[in-house]
């Protein structure tokens, strides 16, 4: 496939994704305004409280029906996209698109501590899948378009086309294929342009700051990164184990457990509606509003606990923005402590908050490049690249030392695939793997390599040429290996190859 075709497909998918995600964002924003008015009404009278509880019950039934019909709209949707790309899960894209849009809007629009970004990734992937299946493209092109749609979805949700592309490369597809990044970037750019027509050009998380962070304070960033890593590991454990809480609610059908989230956020909606939602608006005011240390700690605890409850309920919504909000609150608390101890000037508080956004997301998702690029695009400044990268790397390594795994990869392993997998046959599927310049595969003959079981190297693509996979062929950096394996073994084979690479 030529790069021109890849760009054309990416632009077309990105255009439709941009329209859909912009509509998704618009719907959620307006629903949240309505629900805040309802919470205010519920706090003024008993009749208002009874009315909103009735609304909760009706909403639980409606969303529950969507979940019962299509269980894979639960949660963020990113783990499902990862499983689709390795042929471990088959989904109906039209069903996902309709159900996720409606149920996701209703869930996130209530003010639940959920993000729109994960659902945007799944919605975008569904658009890419519809395109690929409509034109009956090959398996490889199908995966490219699903990944492109996912990147476009994140780009439109955040207004960050580079981060959308990098997230798909680093976290979802685990591939840095040139065709993939060209197609994904094309889709991300056009979807971002469409979103800009709806919401303007201002960065999603614009944080005002005036001063660059001095090098003499970088030892504080080392401590900050370690703290973020420890708290990030704790977040991973809490998110992955919150299902034990819902196991005690066995009498409530899984599709209706969203009622737990709705009832838990009711007091917050009545008494402190500013805390509702994914947290985007809260992040924006942290550096400009005088918030005391004790209030910052209280906000962190509330957001941490209710983010876990919201996500654990199975409500269609993500953890992307809630993670960033927690990172910002940790940065606020750390910055306040540094200022109280006369370690830094109060002028650098916005900087600490920005660094913590990147570090916390980097260590939880185990995607540091995405974290740095995402925060750079979202705050609208390039001056933070070095400290962002430093904090992200330290936090990432801390979680690695503690034994943490990428949150979305862990969640994908938790998805029950028994009913889906029994319908997947053992057909052979070709897939691509890129040789790294620094790995063990580099400069080795094909016959010298201990290949994983159940895989055949068909050919090698090098500089637009196809080479036969003969035993004496020496692999070079950036060679694209075309391999053949049973569909159910691809995930394990890719993992074994990545260890060598």
From TrEMBL:
Where does this one sit in the cell?
Answer: Membrane
TM stretches of this protein? 12-35, 41-64, 144-169, 175-195, 216-236, 256-279, 291-313, 319-339, 351-376, 388-408
Task: Indicate whether Ion transport appears among the record's keywords.
Answer: yes
One of its GO biological process terms is: potassium ion transport
Q: Provide the topology term for how it sits in the membrane.
A: Multi-pass membrane protein
| Family matches, as SUPFAM superfamilies | Clc chloride channel (SSF81340), TrkA C-terminal domain-like (SSF116726)
Q: Which residues form the RCK C-terminal domain?
A: 418-499
- Respond yes or no to whether keyword Transport is given for this record: yes
- Mind telling me what this protein is named? ClC family H(+)/Cl(-) exchange transporter
Keywords (A to Z) from UniProt: Chloride, Ion transport, Membrane, Transmembrane, Transmembrane helix, Transport
Q: What are the leading ranks of the lineage? A: Bacteria, Bacillati, Bacillota, Bacilli, Lactobacillales
Residue ranges of coiled coil? none
Naming one, the record's GO cellular component terms include: plasma membrane
Gene3D superfamilies found in the cross-reference section: Clc chloride channel (1.10.3080.10), Regulator of K+ conductance, C-terminal domain (3.30.70.1450)
Which GO molecular function, any one, fits this protein according to its record?
Answer: monoatomic cation transmembrane transporter activity
**Where mainly found?**
membrane
In terms of PROSITE patterns, this protein maps to: RCK_C (PS51202)
């Amino acid at each position: 496939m030529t790069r021109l075709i890849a760009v054309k497909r990416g632009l077309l998918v990105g255009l439709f994704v941009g329209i859909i995600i912009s509509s998704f964002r618009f719907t959620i924003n307006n629903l949240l305004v309505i629900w805040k008015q309802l919470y205010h009404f519920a706090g003024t009278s008993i009749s208002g409280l009874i009315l909103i509880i009735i609304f909760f019950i009706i909403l639980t039934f409606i969303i529950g029906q969507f979940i019962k019909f299509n269980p894979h709209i639960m949660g963020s949707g990113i783990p499902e996209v990862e499983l689709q790309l390795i042929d471990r899960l088959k989904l109906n894209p039209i069903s996902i698109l309709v159900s996720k849009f409606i149920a996701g809007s209703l869930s996130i629009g209530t003010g639940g501590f959920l993000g729109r970004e994960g659902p945007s990734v799944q919605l975008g992937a569904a658009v890419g899948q519809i395109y690929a299946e409509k034109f009956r493209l090959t398996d490889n092109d199908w995966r490219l378009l699903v990944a492109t749609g996912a990147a476009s979805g994140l780009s439109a949700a955040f207004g960050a086309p580079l981060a959308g592309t990098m997230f798909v490369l680093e976290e979802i597809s685990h591939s840095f294929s040139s065709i993939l990044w060209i197609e994904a970037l094309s889709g991300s750019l056009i979807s971002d342009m469409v979103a800009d027509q709806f919401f303007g050009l201002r960065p999603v998380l614009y944080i005002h700051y005036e001063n660059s962070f001095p090098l003499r304070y970088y030892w504080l960033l080392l401590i900050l990164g370690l703290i973020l890593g420890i708290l990030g590991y704790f977040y991973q454990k809490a998110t992955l184990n919150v299902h034990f809480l819902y196991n005690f609610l066995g009498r409530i059908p899984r599709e209706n457990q969203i009622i737990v989230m709705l009832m838990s956020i009711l007091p917050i909606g009545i008494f402190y509606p500013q805390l509702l939602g994914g947290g985007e608006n809260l992040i924006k005011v942290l550096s400009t509003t005088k918030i005391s240390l004790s209030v910052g700690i209280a906000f962190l605890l509330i957001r941490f606990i209710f983010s876990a409850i919201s996500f654990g309920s199975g409500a269609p919504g993500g953890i992307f923005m809630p993670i960033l909000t927690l990172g910002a609150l940790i940065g606020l608390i750390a910055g306040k402590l540094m200022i109280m101890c006369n370690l830094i000037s109060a002028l650098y508080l916005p900087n600490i908050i920005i660094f913590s956004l990147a570090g916390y997301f980097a260590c939880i998702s185990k995607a540091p490049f995405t974290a740095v690029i995402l925060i750079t695009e979202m705050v609208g400044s390039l001056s933070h690249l070095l400290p962002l990268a430093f904090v992200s790397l330290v936090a990432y390594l801390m979680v690695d030392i503690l034994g943490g795994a990428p949150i979305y990869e862990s969640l994908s392993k938790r998805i029950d695939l028994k009913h889906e997998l029994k319908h997947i046959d053992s057909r052979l599927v070709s897939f691509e793997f890129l040789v790294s310049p620094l790995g063990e595969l580099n400069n080795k003959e094909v016959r010298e390599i201990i290949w994983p079981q159940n895989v055949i190297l068909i050919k090698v693509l090098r500089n637009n040429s196809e080479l036969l996979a003969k035993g004496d062929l020496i692999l070079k950096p950036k060679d694209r290996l075309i391999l053949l394996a049973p569909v159910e073994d691809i995930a394990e084979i890719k993992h074994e190859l990545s260890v060598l690479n």
